[in-house]
Amino acid sequence: MTESPRNAMDPAEETQIGRGGPRDLFSKFDPLIEERQALLDTGVRDPFAIVMDEVLSPTLAIIKGKETILLGTYNYMGMTFDPDVVAAGKQALDEFGAGTTGSRVLNGTYQGHKACEDALKDFYGTRHAMVFSTGYQANLGLMSTIAGKEDYIILDADSHASIYDGCALGNAQIVRFRHNSVEDLEKRLRRLPAEGGRLVVLEGVYSMLGDIAPLKEMVEVSKRHGAMVAVDEAHGMGFFGKNGRGVFEEAGVEDQVDFVVGTFSKSVGTVGGFIVSNHPKFEVLRLVCRPYVFTASLPPSVVATAATSIRKLKDAGAKREHLWKNSRRLHQGLRQLGFDLATEDAQSAIIAVLLPDQEATVRMWQALIEQGLYVNMARPPATPAGMYLLRCSLCADHTDEQVGQILEMFAAAGRATGCIS
Ligand SMILES: Cc1ncc(COP(=O)(O)O)c(C=O)c1O
Question: What domains are defined for the chain?
Answer without folding.
Answer: 34-70+316-417 (3.90.1150.10), 83-314 (3.40.640.10)
